[in-house]
Design goal:
Chain lengths: 318, 95
C-alpha cells in the first residue's frame, strides 16, 4: 500500500472513531492503534493474572468460611477477567503464547501495585476497598472505548468488579468495629496501601507519554490526574466512615475546587517498582513462571488425550 | 515453552429459554468437552446461561469488512422491501 493510500485510510479511521463508531477485529486499523491496544489490553490482562497472587496468599488462612468463599470467588473472577482480556487481545493478531512470553520475560508490564506484600488479613480488606476501587475508576470509562472486543470485555469486568470492592470494604468495616488490635490492623493496612493505590492510577499527566494519543482513540477518557482526584474524593469519606485516618498530613478539603488537596506522591518509589525493584517483583514472577512451567505437562497431556479421543472417534466411524 | 497449544474456541451462550445463543467471547481448550467446561467457568459464573455452544474458531468463515460494499450494497436500493414504500390512504386500518 502506498503512503498516500495509508494516509487516506487513516483519515477515514480517525473519522470513524470521532463519530463514536466501534472498531472490530477485521477492520483496517493503523499499525500504531493495533500495537497500542495490544500493549494496554495485555498489560491489563497480566495485571488480573498477577493480581491473583497477593490474594491467593490468604485463601487458606481466611478467618471464616464466608470470607474464604468470597475471596475464592474474587480470585476466580480475576482469572476470568484475565481470560476475557487475553481473548480480546488475541483478536489483534497476537497469540496467547506470545502474550505469556512477554509477561514471563518482563517485556510486558503489569500493575505495579501487585508487587507489594500482603502481610495481614486486613490487606485483603484494603486491596478490595482501595485497589479494586481504583481499578473500577480506571475501568468504567473503558466500557466505551473504541475497540469493540476490549469494550465488551470491560462491560463484563465492570459488572463483576463491584462485589470485589464491597467485600473488601466489609472486611475493613468488621475490623474497625472489632477490638482495638483489629482496628489497628485495618489502619496499618490503609497506611501501607494508600500511596501505592494513588500511584496505581498512573504517572501525572505531565509525565504520561501515551495520554494524548490514547484520549484521541478513546482508549482513555479521563487523564490519570483526573482519575486520581476522583478516587481521592470518593474514598476520603469512606475512610471517615470507617473511622480510619488517611496517611497524608496534607490531605485537606478545598472549598474552591470542591475537591481534596493532597500531598506529594513519591514517584521515585513508583518508578522503582515499575522497573522491577519493588518488594515482591521477583516473588510474583517466580510464582507465575513456575505455575506456567509446572503446568506444561498438564497442557501437553490434555492435548494428547484430545487427539487420542479424536482418533478413536474416527476409527469407530470406519 | 511447549508448542502443543490448545486451540481457540468461540463461546455462544443462551441466557434463558426463548432467547437465541449469543457470542460471549472465546477461550482456549484441548477439545470440545473441555471447551464447554471452561466456558461454564469463564462465562457463566453468575447464572448467565442455560445452554452453551462452543465452536472451534478455525471453523468459522467470516466476511471481510473491506468487501462490505459489494456484499451489502445490493440491499441498499431495495426500498420496496420495506412497508413504508407503499402508499395507502389513511383510512385503511390494521395494515
Amino acid at each position: 500500500m502506498s503512503d498516500e493510500q495509508v494516509k487516506s485510510l487513516e483519515e477515514i479511521f480517525e473519522a470513524r472513531i470521532a463519530r463514536d463508531e466501534k472498531i472490530e477485529p477485521k477492520d483496517w486499523m493503523p499499525e500504531k492503534y493495533r500495537k497500542t491496544h495490544i500493549r494496554q489490553i495485555s498489560q491489563h490482562a497480566h495485571s488480573e493474572i498477577v493480581g491473583m497472587l497477593p490474594e491467593g496468599n490468604w485463601i487458606s488462612r481466611a478467618p471464616s468460611l464466608r470470607r474464604k468463599a468470597a475471596l475464592l470467588a474474587k480470585v476466580q473472577d480475576e482469572a476470568g477477567h484475565g481470560l476475557y482480556l487475553y481473548s480480546a487481545c488475541e483478536t489483534l493478531g497476537i497469540s496467547r503464547d506470545e502474550l505469556y512470553e512477554q509477561l514471563h520475560t518482563g517485556k510486558a508490564k503489569y500493575s505495579s501495585i501487585f508487587n507489594y506484600p500482603t502481610v495481614t488479613w486486613a490487606d485483603m480488606g484494603a486491596i478490595g476497598w482501595l485497589v479494586d476501587g481504583a481499578a473500577i475508576i480506571n475501568q468504567v470509562p473503558l466500557c466505551n472505548t473504541s475497540y469493540g472486543p476490549y469494550a465488551r470485555a470491560m462491560v463484563r469486568v465492570c459488572k463483576e468488579e463491584s462485589f470485589h470492592q464491597r467485600q473488601g470494604f466489609e472486611i475493613m468495616l468488621k475490623l474497625c468495629n472489632g477490638s482495638p488490635e483489629q482496628k489497628e490492623m485495618a489502619q496499618d493496612a490503609l497506611n501501607r496501601w494508600w500511596w501505592p493505590s494513588l500511584m496505581m492510577l498512573g504517572p501525572t499527566d505531565a509525565e504520561s507519554v501515551h495520554t494524548e494519543q490514547s484520549m484521541k482513540w478513546k482508549l482513555k477518557r479521563k487523564t490519570n490526574d483526573e482519575l486520581r482526584q476522583q478516587f481521592i474524593d470518593q474514598t476520603v469519606p469512606q475512610a471517615d466512615l470507617l473511622g480510619l485516618t488517611i496517611p497524608d498530613p496534607n490531605l485537606k478539603w478545598n472549598d474552591e475546587t470542591g475537591s481534596y488537596d493532597f500531598g506529594e506522591i513519591d514517584w521515585d518509589e513508583f518508578w522503582q517498582v515499575v522497573k522491577g525493584h519493588g518488594p515482591c517483583n521477583k516473588e510474583r514472577m517466580d510464582a507465575r513462571v513456575g505455575a506456567w512451567e509446572k503446568g506444561a505437562w498438564v497442557r501437553d497431556a490434555a492435548m494428547a488425550h484430545a487427539k487420542k479421543k479424536e482418533n478413536k472417534k474416527l476409527k469407530e466411524a470406519v | 515453552m511447549s508448542n502443543n497449544n490448545w486451540p481457540l474456541w468461540e463461546v455462544f451462550v443462551r441466557s434463558k429459554n426463548g432467547l437465541e445463543h449469543r457470542h460471549f467471547g472465546s477461550l482456549h481448550a484441548a477439545d470440545a468437552d473441555m471447551a464447554l467446561e471452561n466456558a461454564r467457568d469463564v462465562y457463566t459464573r453468575r447464572n448467565e446461561g442455560v445452554s452453551i455452544w462452543v465452536v472451534e474458531s478455525s471453523n468459522i468463515t467470516a466476511s471481510n469488512p473491506e468487501h462490505n460494499g459489494e456484499l451489502f450494497e445490493p440491499a441498499q436500493d431495495k426500498v420496496y422491501r420495506h412497508p413504508t414504500f407503499y402508499n395507502l390512504p389513511d383510512e385503511v386500518k390494521h395494515m
